[in-house]
Design goal:
With 393 residues, the chain is of the alpha/beta class. The chain is 31% helix and 21% strand. The chain has two domains: 6-24 and 278-385, D-serine dehydratase-like domain (Lyase, Ornithine Decarboxylase, Chain A, domain 1); 29-261, Alpha-Beta Barrel (TIM Barrel). The chain has eleven helices and 17 strands. The longest helix is centred in the middle third of the chain and has 23 residues, at 203-225.
């Protein structure tokens, strides 16, 4: 804790009321229940899970997930992978395309580091040029280190996201064949993540979207295997759809990450009856700093929480919130009575906000303060550094 600012380090063991505002706070009890429910779900369905570390950006939390049964973690950026490895996480999948030679050289260096610890690094590709550049970086690293390291490579197919990934079918087959040409690369399977499906509000809409994704995976796998190539892994899924991929019999690994914290946007989804009951565990603690006839103002503006998925919810402990949050700018939030209420908080009152989107919210903070015993009367038990904050390259 010595590297932390005194006002943070000195919080250990202190009551929750002593946390200055605005601050990013984890309800440790809720997070623990979420983690246990995910581990039990994966075990019940005999499926691997590799949560996204881009959610929490903490090597300590990544290791906690691995201890609970995860096979490793996903990251999206080379710098995120470096932060995880520096923190002692050695089984990683960069579930994204990397093209720049400088980044690929860094990835090749990471392969060497994780192999020294008995780990494994994998990466996604969606172009022949990407495969060739990756192979060159690995070959150069082999010559430099004198060690014949191999990186696992997964072909990404576009199953509905409309972002990265080749079209399912013959294009994916061509990439698998290309990967097999390079001694430093090992074809490991398919990346088939449907991000858009995660936030389809109705359970039926998600079922229909994932059914199409499964069809695309089955077609692609059949064509690759017809070439005599084994498709070892099919990885994908998110918190919104994980029950569907798990039940498909096609996916062998789940990448769901948001389940650990559960943001306000996921709370808008109609819950699938088969999904574990995940709870909100990440909050922005804020204080009312100004009061007026029809509104109040708190000290948590959009510098403390991301608004790409909408405004945060004002947490209510026992019932629906009596307050709605409106954007007040960088440093301020505007609070107004919710429909059917006339109540406003008093000056100095502490409130808890549920971020609209957890991942970019975490990236705005240096630390996450872990509270055990509840947000009302708990104590600070852990302080997690956001190791991969700003890790964008």
């Amino acid at each position: 804790m010595t590297s932390l600012p005194p006002h943070i380090a000195d919080l250990m063991g202190k009551p929750v009321h002593d946390i200055d505002t605005p601050a990013l706070v984890i309800d440790l009890d809720a997070m623990r229940r979420n983690l246990n429910r995910m581990a039990e779900f994966a075990k019940k369905h005999n499926i691997l899970w590799r949560p996204h570390a881009k959610l929490h950006k903490s090597a300590t939390l990544a290791k906690k997930q691995i201890k609970a049964g995860a096979v490793g973690v996903c990251v999206q950026k080379t710098a995120e992978a470096e932060a995880m490895v520096a923190g002692g996480v050695y089984n990683l999948f960069i579930s994204n395309e990397v093209i720049a030679p400088g980044k690929l050289a860094r990835i090749a260096a990471l392969v060497q580091k994780v192999s020294e610890h008995g780990g494994q690094l994998a990466i996604a590709v969606d172009s022949t040029e990407g495969v060739v550049r990756l192979a060159q970086a690995m070959t150069d690293a082999r010559a430099l280190n004198g060690v014949a390291n191999v990186i696992d490579v997964l072909v990404e197919i576009d199953v509905g996201q409309g972002r990265c990934g080749v079209e399912p079918g013959s294009e994916a087959v061509a990439l698998a064949l290309e990967i097999r040409k390079h001694p430093a690369l090992r074809f490991a399977g398919l990346q088939a993540y449907h991000g858009k499906a995660q936030h389809l509000r109705s359970a039926q809409a998600r079922r229909e979207a994932i059914a199409k994704a499964v069809d695309a995976v089955v077609l692609t796998r059949q064509l690759i295997e017809a070439q005599g190539i084994s498709v070892g892994l099919v990885t994908g899924a998110g918190t919104g759809s994980l029950v569907l991929e798990a039940a498909s019999g096609v996916y062998s690994e789940l990448q769901a990450g948001s389940f650990l914290f559960m943001d306000a946007d996921y709370a808008k989804n109609e819950r699938d009856a088969a999904q574990p009951q995940f709870e909100h565990a990440l909050f922005v603690k804020t204080q009312v700093i100004s009061t007026h006839t029809h509104h109040a103002v708190c000290d948590a503006g959009h510098k403390s929480h991301a608004i790409d998925s909408g405004m945060p919810l004002v947490h209510a402990f026992d019932s629906e919130s009596e307050l709605d949050y409106f954007n007040g700018g960088d440093e301020h939030g505007i609070l107004r009575p919710a429909a059917g209420s006339q109540r406003l908080p008093g000056l100095g009152q502490m409130l808890w906000l549920i971020p609209g989107h957890c991942d970019p919210t975490v990236n705005l903070h240096d630390v996450m303060i872990g509270v055990g015993g509840g947000l009302r009367n708990g104590t600070v038990q852990r302080i997690y550094t956001v190791d991969a904050r700003g890790a964008m390259t």
